[in-house]
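Tutorial, part two.
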Amino acid sequence: MEKINITIGADGTVDLDLAGFEGGKCKEATKALERLLGNEIVERTLTSEYYLANELKQEEKLPGS
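Running the prediction step on this input gives:
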């Protein structure tokens, strides 16, 4: 299940914590939020879910599979 948790700090910083998104879907899901908030992205930490879709694509391209 895809989930987005939004935390707004007392200093106005916004933290988006996503779960359940594979590959670059997480970036697509937050694109509109980032634009609306107008905040500069200070840090983006990618989880193993981000790399999962890329790993599956590479495995599909292996010869003899």
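The beta strands are 3-8, 14-19. In part three we will examine how such features are distributed along the chain.
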